């Protein structure tokens, strides 16, 4: 008897992928671990629209009238703040989760664009330091590869409290990616799974963080800006507390932010989307009188100049890209299909960063796979992508009559959906209605 | 040749920690004066943090958080109690606490020798990555948690969950542990272990008989995720 | 997230300058808690048949002359001392009767503490300013606790400031962050405990109050708290003749104890203790996780207890 097509209707709560996951768990007795970010549809910057100038406001001429993009990060306490030419930075991604070629490509592209890259769990490599003119050095709970010399040769320091993909969770690097070099950098035997701690080993809470920041300033003679990175959850409190603890900048990673490897349950169920998080963080900064004094760098699902423009309009000082930067240099590109198939996926659906078998040579240390990504080519790709993002950002800013992208405001936007209106606290398009703010449509 | 430590005493009632550290950071190889005594520390934080020269710092009194943090090459002696994270992430050199130490002593340290004559509190040697820590007294709970490399010597007792999730670090314990953490097991003490223990005790200047110690380390059962594959049955 | 300090005098010299010493300790903890500060002093017991109350009034009113005159009509003896935004009332009479009278005649008055010896003063603002506003330096006493607050989630108000009163002559200060206080607050409300704020530390105080009302000793109540409260905490609890310290079993929030012949002190950081005479030669150590420490004065006035778990005196 053949299958009755009319009966092929999935159960609302038990579609085939849910059944498969239940049976996988039953078979393996362990949670699913994967890379990249949330796969569910969440309210995002796409749900905001910008109000271009017309009669009440006047636009700037593209290419002729300047629209500046420079931003200074970390001037609150540090003697040497970072001067960025563009408000788009490369987010923290570890050597270990990424290979050397990818790290070098990021560094070269960022340096040519006048922006910064960021280290990750596992420390700083010489290649990475050489490739990046401006390098932000992360201080993470695991302190793998933590080294005072690197602290001193960094341009800024980022104390990582949490990550958008997994606020409250630690890192993870599965044994298959821990080759001799990675293992040596992390002082561990090769081939073991590396579970990084979820809390710092020597401080908890804002009062102790303040003392930790003081120590980092002492070690680096008060030169380096100190960022505090948090995953978006109780964002208003966390932003305020990072500022109270003395941060020069707050890095806010929304739940759409990526990861090299973590539990799927974490990626999909913990944290809040980037959109409401930015608004909450900016409000916290404004309440403290610290907006623009302590910079806010936003990451988690930034893909285009439009996303960047909207994040800046909500009050961010800069955005940071991770997943998108990887995609720019070839992540999920439809090439080497047979290698994607070996991982059980088609290009466009791959999230197998944790396996070390990256078909395009980005999240791997396998020399053969890495050779698929010549660093210079990767750098050109990312540079082009960043240039495009900046053009898009300037286009939108000029259209709103701004000669500097930081002059974008929430009032330059409306929302296409009620959710986005409520979360971003901008009116639903065509109305004066901001859900939760009183008034009515 | 500079001589930034020409003044051999630094009174923290009169000088800020920031000034003290700036002076210590300015010491260069070949300087005449390489020693300093710090008075009136009064529990202040980050005293002698980030040193990177063969200087000798003696702190007369109790210190706050992160004293001698990330030390390289320097010798720091604390004649008193040390607050949380003493010698955290130390790379090399020697830090010697004559009193008790608070929690997370020697956390994530990569090298060098940390000696604590008294007791150390919770999480002594947490995530240690090559440092040697010798404790004259006892250590608190979760000591050597996720310890990766290096050696932790405890002349007294250990609190609960000693060596939880330990990797390749080695623990030598003379007294009793209130409990071992996950994946931490007692291991056979061979001649080479007694020899390295004896060296560590001598280096620390602590008189204890290596024959009275037991060795603990990783059972290596947590090294990789266990997958049950019930379906294969 | 905060700083805690506690000082227990073992000598007359320390008692006479208790306020001066505690204020120094409190100000050292200013970085940890710039939002508000509060203290509990144990001094001048009123004795049998009397009750001592620390009170404050809603708004910026200070109706103490009226309150005092009114109380006189209902109770045989009353004294009132104004201190900053608070007042200390000593009334000959039963506490419940005094409370009922105040609730009826002066609903704007809030009781901050009640007992035989306890006096609590707390206010928002920088600890140094709070210390000045209450003239804390001049206060004498046998022992005292203090708290500086860095608000994490709940609001910065006087009512949110520590110490929280947990019963007659008992109060609690907290450093850390509880993770199950919302549901616990609901349960305690149904058991008749009233809360003035959404603050997690107030729930810890309420929990002790409820246990002790049900007949538990302080020691038993603290043991129960160790089982019921989730999250991270170091508590210091002031008692009629001593104080107690307890840390959660994970014990991330640091605490340090020190003792000399003249005093026993506890603080979140040693630098608070460093302000005390003889601190440089004091014995300094850390309280163990998940363990209850109690100091008190014995029949001869000596300070006993501490390093070992001690039963509270009956």
Write a concise keyword list for the protein shown above.
heterotrimer; A: 441 residues; alpha/beta; TIM Barrel; 2 domains; eight-stranded parallel beta sheet; two-stranded antiparallel sheet; B: 233 residues; mainly beta; elongated
Task: Provide a short characterization of the protein structure.
Chain C: Keywords: Glutamine amidotransferase, Transferase. The complex is a heterotrimer of chains A (441), B (233) and C (314). By secondary structure, chain A is an alpha/beta fold.
User: Please, what is the average pLDDT of chain A?
Assistant: 93
The H-and-E topology of chain C, N to C, reads as EHHEEHEEHEEHEEEHHHEEEEHEEE
Helix/strand structural class of chain C: alpha+beta
Radius of gyration of chain A: 22 Å
The quaternary structure here is: heterotrimer
CATH topology of the largest domain in chain A: TIM Barrel
Here the CATH topology of the largest domain in chain C equals Glutamine Phosphoribosylpyrophosphate, subunit 1, domain 1
Give the C-level CATH assignment of the largest domain in chain A: Alpha Beta
What is the CATH homology-level superfamily of the largest domain in chain A? Aldolase class I
Q: How much beta of chain C, percentage-wise?
A: 25-35%
- The number of domains of chain A: 2
Protein name (chain B): N-methylglutamate synthase subunit B
InterPro entries (chain B): Glu_synth_asu_C_sf, Glu_synth_lsu_3
Organism (chain B): Limimonas halophila
GO molecular function (chain B): oxidoreductase activity
Task: Explain this structure.
The complex is a heterotrimer of chains A (441), B (233) and C (314). Chain A is 34% helix and 13% strand. In chain A, strand 14, helix 10 and strand 15 form a beta-alpha-beta unit. Chain A is globular, with a radius of gyration of 22 Å. Chain A is built from 15 helices and 16 strands. Chain A has two domains: 314 residues, TIM Barrel; 42 residues, no CATH class. Chain A is an alpha/beta fold and 441 residues long. Chain B is 10% helix and 22% strand. Chain B contains two helices and eleven strands; from the N terminus they run E-H-E-E-E-E-E-E-E-E-E-H-E. The mean pLDDT of chain B is 94. With 233 residues, chain B is mainly beta. In chain B, strands 1-2-3-4-5-6-7-8-9-11-10 form an eleven-stranded mixed sheet, covered by helices on one side. Chain C has nine helices and 17 strands. In chain C, strand 9 and strand 10 form a beta hairpin. In chain C, helix 3 crosses helix 4 and helix 6 packs parallel to helix 7. Chain C is globular, with a radius of gyration of 18 Å. The interface between A and B is large, with 39 and 46 residues. Chain B: It comes from Limimonas halophila. Chain B: GO terms for molecular function: oxidoreductase activity. Chain B: This is N-methylglutamate synthase subunit B.
